[in-house]
Amino acid sequence: MPSVAELLRKSVPELRELFLTRGRAVPKGLLEALEADTRQGAQQLASRIRGRYRSNRSEGQGLHTLLRFEIDLWAQGFALIAGVDEAGMAPLAGPVVAGAVILPENYKLRGLNDSKKILDQDMRDELAAQIKQDAICWSYGFAEVAEIDRINIYHAGLLAMQRAVQGLSCAPDFVLVDARRIPQCPAPQRGIIRGDTLSASIAAASIIAKTTRDAHMLQMDRLYQGYGFASHKGYPTPEHCRALKELGALPIHRRSFGRVREVLGLDPVQSELFADSQDEVAAAVAGHAN
């Protein structure tokens, strides 16, 4: 790296390219020199670099906060902590998909957050690829449309989570779940309300679940053209509801959902979805886990 004196001989746009666009490390003394520089834009550049420092510190603190549940469990001796979350509870079509991820201890990934808050699909895909590369192990589980219609969407979500955990190549010592408890989970577990915004492991699982389901719905778009699955991924957007009414229901549409039942001329409520007892519901979920 050139000396501060050599850097100050560069133009402000050149310095901006180096230290903002490329993100090069700022040598000691350069910020102070830029703040004392009389050139137009030099002080503004110094202010922007300091702003980047504040942003990086804030994100670093946020990532550390995102690990608070994991840090507590690591301190208790739980080495392999799995985060679990699902995607696709609300759509009218397609499966519900769950992700399960075991991250390395003290893992921090810039941009890691609940998948619903990451609106840029390319960014989600990049984060998913990085998580898959860095994770100790990861997995996903599907609950198909027929299962959703048979045991209802809530229990199908649990079933997908169950399958995601079972698919991990190493057994977790502890499981963190977004707002639920997974039936017949062999490891101790904790459900965390809004866990996808509070736990790094659950946030990573939410990204795996979301990107896996989105990729599946892109395949469905190629198979069933005209419904717009590539854009809405099966969610009840005006575009999807219009196509459903005009073109009719597909095999991948959930017949237990009111808008699909309306198109098919079925009763609004499918009463057989509601088991007579909690034991029957648990048995249904357990029976489809194999």
Describe what you observe in this structure.
The protein has 290 residues and is of the alpha/beta class. The protein folds into 2 domains: 4-65, no CATH class; 68-221 and 277-287, Nucleotidyltransferase, domain 5. It has helices at residues 4-8, 12-21, 30-36, 42-65, 68-75, 121-134, 145-151, 153-166, 195-198, 200-223, 229-232, 238-247, 258-264, 278-287; strands at 81-87, 96-102, 137-143, 174-178, 189-192. The protein has a 5-stranded mixed β-sheet. The radius of gyration is 24 Å and the shape is flat.
Proportion of strand residues: 5-15%
* Structural Rg: 24 Å
Biggest sheet character: 5 strands, mixed
CATH architecture of the largest domain: 2-Layer Sandwich
Q: SS-based structural class?
A: alpha/beta
Average pLDDT score: 87
Strand order of the largest sheet: 3-2-1-4-5
E-strand count: 5
Helix content: 40-55%
Q: CATH-wise, what's the superfamily of the largest domain?
A: Ribonuclease H-like superfamily/Ribonuclease H
Task: Quickly count the domains.
Answer: 2
CATH topology term of the largest domain: Nucleotidyltransferase, domain 5
SSE topology string = HHHHHEEHEHHEEHHHHHH
Q: Uncertain spans, ≥5 residues at pLDDT below 50?
A: 273-281
Which outline best applies?
flat
Number of helices: 14
CATH C-level class of the largest domain is Alpha Beta
Distance between the termini: 59 Å
Topology:
Layout: H1 4-8, H2 12-21, H3 30-36, H4 42-65, H5 68-75, E1 81-87, E2 96-102, H6 121-134, E3 137-143, H7 145-151, H8 153-166, E4 174-178, E5 189-192, H9 195-198, H10 200-223, H11 229-232, H12 238-247, H13 258-264, H14 278-287
